[in-house]
Each structure stands twice: as structure tokens, then as C-alpha cells.
User: What shape does this take?
Amino acid sequence: MDYSILMIVVMLAVMYFIMIRPENKRKKKAQEMRDSLKKGDIITSIGGIIGRIVSVSKDTIVIETSDDRVRVELAKWAVSSVGVQSGEEPVEQKEEKKEKKKLPASSETEEK
Assistant: This one.
């Protein structure tokens, strides 16, 4: 009986360190990023809107989304990241990966 209670406690501790603690760290880091937003920063929203911040208030920001000076007001919690976020890898990283794949294959043929 004591063994089963000990196992439950151990499982809860492991669950905390594997799941809960990292999530709390991510939330804290995201909140710090949102609190540090300032005029002139380029942001990407969770909806994919990219723009430059023109004003910051306690709970909202106003961004310009294009050269036409289109302004949009967003809640701070809707900011995904500072900078332009894209789903694709930069071309340089893709080329580096291709080169790394080619190198081991060519070195094997030279050894034979």
C-alpha cells in the first residue's frame, strides 16, 4: 500500500517537471515579450498580421500594416512574436542542410 502511494507521488512529480513547468516558463517568457513591446517594433500577430507598432497602451497596441498607413488595433495577448515570423526556413538554412546531406555520401564513395 505504501508503495502505491509513493508511485503516485513520483508520477505527479515527473508530470510536473515534464509538462507543467515548461509550459509556465513559456507563458512567462511570452508575457515578458508582450510587456516589452515599444513603438517602432515590427510584430507578427497570432492571426499572421505583420506590422510596425505606432502606439502602445496598457492592454492594446496599434500597428501600421502597410505603406498605405493602414492602422489596426490589437490586444497585446494577440502578439505572437516580435519580428516577422514565417512558416518557411530561410534559403540559407535549406542550402546548408542539402550540403550536409551530400558531404557524408561523397566521403563514403571516396573511401571505397
About this structure: The radius of gyration is 23 Å.
